[in-house]
Amino acid sequence: MLFSALALAVLSVASQSAYAINFPYENIQLTEGDVANNSDIAFGTLPPIGNGRKCKTFPGDDNWPSDTRWRAFNASLGGALVKGIPPAAACYDGPYLNEGGCTTVRARQNSSRFASDDPTIPFGLWQLDNPCPVPAVGSLPPISACNLTSLPQYVVNVTTAKHVQLAVNFARNNNIRLTIKNTGHDFLGRNTGGGALQVWVHPLKTFEYIPSIQVGNYTGKAARVGAGIMTYEMFDLMAKYNITVPCAGGATVSSIGGWMQGGGFSILTSKIGLMSDQILSLEVVTADGKFVHADPFENAELFWALRGGGPSNYGIVTSALIKVHDAFSISTSSINFQTGQGTAASPQVSNETFWAGISIYFSHLVRITDARGIGWNYIRTAAPTANSSRTFTWISTVVLNDISAADAKAFVAPLIADLNAIGINLTNPEPTWFPTYAQQGFRPNPDESVSNGRFGSRLIPRKALVDPKSKDFLAATRAIRSFVEDGGYMWHSVDFTPTLEKAGYPGRIAAVNPHLRDAIMHSTGFDTASYGPETTIAQKIASHDRLNEYLDKLRVATPGSGAYMNEADPDEPNPQESFYGSNYAKLKAFKAETDPWGVFYAVTAVGSEDWVVEGTRGLTTQQGRLCRI
Ligand SMILES: Cc1cc2nc3c(=O)[nH]c(=O)nc-3n(C[C@H](O)[C@H](O)[C@H](O)COP(=O)(O)OP(=O)(O)OC[C@H]3O[C@@H](n4cnc5c(N)ncnc54)[C@H](O)[C@@H]3O)c2cc1C
Ligand SMILES: *[C@@H]1O[C@H](CO)[C@@H](O)[C@H](O)[C@H]1NC(C)=O
Ligand SMILES: *[C@@H]1O[C@H](CO)[C@@H](O)[C@H](O)[C@H]1NC(C)=O
Ligand SMILES: *[C@@H]1O[C@H](CO)[C@@H](O)[C@H](O)[C@H]1NC(C)=O
Ligand SMILES: *[C@@H]1O[C@H](CO)[C@@H](O)[C@H](O)[C@H]1NC(C)=O
Ligand SMILES: *[C@@H]1O[C@H](CO)[C@@H](O)[C@H](O)[C@H]1NC(C)=O
Ligand SMILES: *[C@@H]1O[C@H](CO)[C@@H](O)[C@H](O)[C@H]1NC(C)=O
Ligand SMILES: *[C@@H]1O[C@H](CO)[C@@H](O)[C@H](O)[C@H]1NC(C)=O
Ligand SMILES: *[C@@H]1O[C@H](CO)[C@@H](O)[C@H](O)[C@H]1NC(C)=O
Ligand SMILES: *[C@@H]1O[C@H](CO)[C@@H](O)[C@H](O)[C@H]1NC(C)=O
Ligand SMILES: *[C@@H]1O[C@H](CO)[C@@H](O)[C@H](O)[C@H]1NC(C)=O
To answer: What is the dihedral of CA 141, 143, 145, 149, to 10 degrees?
Structure first.
């Protein structure tokens, strides 16, 4: 059962010392006695002895651990070591050939749950240079065509804190690349690497509701959340306890993994801040292999860094204590229009009216987010055909919370009136109203597809959208228009204001990207080209260059802003400034001090500029050997 640990007694604690209580799986820890006679799994000591070697040890190297030592490592793990074999290997002629397995992978290769339930593969395979593509039906390539070296070699199937500690120690002591997979959804490839030992935290599903707790200046409801809990599971828990916890838009994103550690926006962000703002304490395995507690008073700098300063960087989180809010209602109003054949709910307008309508929507974002609501929207475009010129479609939702349907409708009315005034023939839609966030987020089938494509993003600062006549407003809207109209790409934004005021205590003091704090719009531009195995490297490079040309227009239009690290291009120019802003120097110093071994590397992560993945072919990918520059 998923939430078997719910059988735990529900705690009601009011004293500060009580919040360091672990889940049972965290009480199983690695001891000095366990490591006494085994240098493979010894703890790290600071400062480290000698300089780190230039490159991580890669499969096939002389000093790659022997099978005997891997077996001993597996024994210390109680048998939790899994060989890193991608499911598609079942479709290749060789030791993993398996007809049933191959049928499954063919049917489910684009499923988010298939990816998150597999110990080895990340969702996006271009990040590993598409090492083991699903072969065409009827073909049976040799297993040598499935490049197993490009994937993590072994995976620790984590069910205890001790498993995580053993993995960190074994990887560090043997100079092997370490990767952390939770759901595997990361778009940048921060969750995977060729030749790595992978820590798979997905099985940590425990949840505990705490009706009342005090942590520093916070007094109220809380919950303790295991690292592997995903959005759809959290919505079920919210319904069960009649509570609210922010969640990602994707049903199978993890709650306190990469999403939280990079910030984590939701439809509640303008009301209660980011996911990283909800954290009261964290249980963490650090680069030296120690299992530690971090909160505003103990390991405060680690606590600061882990909340917004980037995942896979300072430690492996096994659980978090988070704030929990009362249940409240959610109201959504859909506002759509297009230049193609219209309908009453999505009327047809001219090109110029279309773009004017979008500017009107943008001009209402300050009002919407000041009311603690958000915008969620897409501009889609269809290429010209023999019978029709290029068409554009605007699909948007205004999401308000803690409001009646009638009040929500009245709130949206001025926006509809402004759209009507320029000739967009829309009636104010009846809001779709949910009594609780749990009901709004409930997914009977949480499976969803995530593609093997690329995109880039930019944060539009709030100040740029305050005055629709300002040059900043015009520059931002012009760049977005060009991305879609000239680039022919799809564009998407989520519009919210995660200010320090919304962050509250202890969120206000965290390593969240200051550019995100100042933003009103997370603007994302999607490539239409495939980065799959059927395209050549030259095609991939050309596609990315073209995408980047249009992303640059957004960057130029918003000088001094940055991008949201969790939904971004791994080839983002100057990722240190874009993703971390003024926190970068402090984060880098903390990282250097606590992880001089470079145990935690991830593309675009703090200190990643000191490393390079060898054997990549023109784009940032993760399949090769990791080396210091
Ligand atoms: C369908 C979909 C919808 C999304 N919607 C949103 C959204 O609404 N809002 C938003 O902000 N983002 C959203 N995202 C982006 C999301 O924030 C990132 O994809 C994020 O990296 C996912 O984290 P994960 O832990 O689920 O995935 P993974 O790929 O498993 O991990 C991501 C990163 O976190 C690290 N990591 C994971 N767990 C831990 C841990 N316990 N300790 C230390 N490091 C860890 C990994 O090593 C990796 O670097 C969405 C993504 C998808 C695919
Ligand atoms: C470690 O080795 C010493 C000496 O050989 C031995 O006395 C001790 O029992 C060993 N400890 C463990 C945990 O195996
Ligand atoms: C680890 O040990 C378990 C239990 O003995 C075994 O099932 C598993 O195959 C082993 N893993 C590897 C990679 O050999
Ligand atoms: C999965 O996606 C690939 C690439 O887009 C596509 O070719 C394939 O048909 C999809 N498979 C399924 C089962 O949807
Ligand atoms: C991971 O471990 C759990 C618990 O021991 C087990 O049920 C599951 O089958 C394992 N998964 C894999 C992929 O080995
Ligand atoms: C807690 O609140 C008090 C009173 O507002 C304030 O003085 C103190 O600095 C706060 N503590 C923290 C850790 O924020
Ligand atoms: C859920 O919580 C809300 C807000 O506290 C409250 O108004 C409502 O009555 C509760 N519902 C149930 C079924 O307990
Ligand atoms: C506006 O739309 C309504 C409903 O679709 C339609 O009845 C009406 O004729 C339209 N008005 C104009 C001016 O197009
Ligand atoms: C496009 O026009 C051609 C010629 O008039 C016609 O045969 C075809 O059916 C049209 N296609 C569509 C999608 O309308
Ligand atoms: C609308 O703009 C697109 C892109 O610039 C152009 O291809 C199309 O012809 C225009 N449509 C009309 C009806 O003018
Ligand atoms: C397999 O991947 C590794 C690591 O990326 C690379 O060094 C090797 O050349 C690849 N082998 C083949 C046959 O492509």
So the answer is: 160
